[in-house]
Amino acid sequence: MAATASAPASVAAPPPRRLVRPTGLGGWLVWALVAFFFINLFALIATVVLDSVATTWFGSWLPDGFTPHWYGDAWQDFNLTDVLIVTAQVAAVVVAVSILIGVPTAYALARRNFPGKRLVSLLFLLPILIPPITYGIPLATVLYKYQLAGSLTGVILANLVPTVPFVVLVMIPFIEQIDPKIEAAARMCGAGTSTIFLRILGPLLVPGILAAAILVLVRTVGMFELTFLTAGPGSATLVVVLYDAVFGAGIRAPQTVDAMAVVYTASMLVLLLIALRFVNPTQLVARVDAR
Predict the structure, then answer these.
(1) Where are the alpha helices (DSSP H) in 78-178?
(2) Domain count across the chain
(3) Which of 20, 93, 98, 225 could be joined to 163 by an S-S link, Cβ 3.0–4.6 Å?
(4) Is 59 helix (H, G, I), strand (E, B) or coil?
């Protein structure tokens, strides 16, 4: 008896994408404002990039000539090799410590009910909600009192204040998405808390941990206020050195400052592209715990 093969079910073709067109005066006004914003943003970035490779540029649409030597001058004048090493050291340690502290804390807040839980959650949110300068000055005063400011340790400790709560906020939705029955089944089989956390929850939380780590990396490299208040001559990150180059004493060629600004912008752009590659911004919206 010949076997009959069933024909594969036809897959419905996806609906064609519709081109969004502005409708009415309000729609055209919104599109005009969006276009105006992006044109100004592109013009601002293009001006800095062109000036960083310009020989001279006065009263014309384009520079009189182009040269890349300003980047070499900026690299030597601001000692960018050491600055980038310090920035990488601060960012790496802050990311590692924030993950080690934030992930277990997020697990406790997501899985456990205890008196004062809402108050603890609110305290974790405060360093994210309020401007860093409001608690940065008292924090820097304490660090200077104990002779920690002006060093890598002081910069790292200051940056941990907002990054640990940030990891907690990011990780709670990822932990809540995991069915607690998985943990209950593992406990019934004799697994302890450390085994459950490392061998069961750990692999499931890798996307969330990766997302939190990349976002903390971006946040730490771009953090100015806390780093500026606690950094010393050998512990300043790239954003602080850029600020000193713009507003510090001395006469500098504006092209060298623009060259360093391009280096900083390019590094932040690369980090943001990596973050958007692994992180969906909609995943960062924490669900309200109704329990």
Answers:
(1) 80-111, 117-129, 132-145, 152-176
(2) 2
(3) 98
(4) coil
Q: Which of 12, 40, 67 is the last residue of a domain?
A: 67
pLDDT in tens, 138-148: 999 999 999 99
**Both 142 and 219 in a single domain?**
yes
Rounded distance, CA 142 to CA 148, Å? 9
What sign does the CA torsion over 199, 200, 204, 209 have? negative
**Do 46 and 117 fall into the same domain?**
no
For 211-249, the pLDDT digits (tens) are: 889 889 988 998 999 999 999 888 899 999 988 888 876
89 and 130 assigned to the same domain: yes
pTM of the complete model: 0.77
Residue 3, domain member (yes or no): no
Nearest to 260 by CA among 234, 276, 236, 227: 236
Q: Assess whether pLDDT exceeds 60 at residue 160.
A: yes
Reported as type and span, the H/E element at residue 205 is none
Domain that holds residue 153: 79-284
Cβ-defined contacts of 265-271 (< 8 Å, 24+):
265/45, 265/48, 267/221, 267/238, 268/218, 268/221, 268/222, 271/214, 271/217, 271/218, 271/221
Report yes or no on 115 lying in a domain: yes
Q: What is the pLDDT of residues 41-86, one digit of tens each?
A: 898 888 889 988 998 888 788 888 888 888 988 888 888 889 999 9
